Amino acid sequence: MKRHFYLIAGWASLGLGAIGAFLPLLPTVPFVILAAFCFARSSPRLETWLLTHPHFGRHIAAWREKGAISRKGKIAATAAFAFSIMLAAIFAPWPWLMIPVIAAAVTGSWIWTRPEG
């Protein structure tokens, strides 16, 4: 039963990561890292696929070894946050526009405290 839960959670995380590639406030790499965590507990084949993936494999390995996020990843996350805040400033009424501002401040602060891999 646990294996099925982790397998479903892994696919859901991977799906959210894919969506995050197109939506500015939804991150991609953290969901792929979560998918690797879930697949490690449910499907060694899928975990290996993620670990050897040419784009995501090194990010997963850096996170597992040192809890590290690359400088490029940090800058990309900050740019995505800025874009989300600009969209909210244009389309969202007060006080709703503060949601991406708060999310960017909290999450961005945490991201920049991580070591660089």
Automatic annotation (TrEMBL):
The keyword Mitochondrion does not apply. GO terms for cellular component: plasma membrane. InterPro entries: DUF454. Pfam families: DUF454. This is DUF454 domain-containing protein. It comes from Sphingopyxis fribergensis. Keywords: Membrane, Transmembrane, Transmembrane helix. The chain crosses the membrane at residues 6-39.
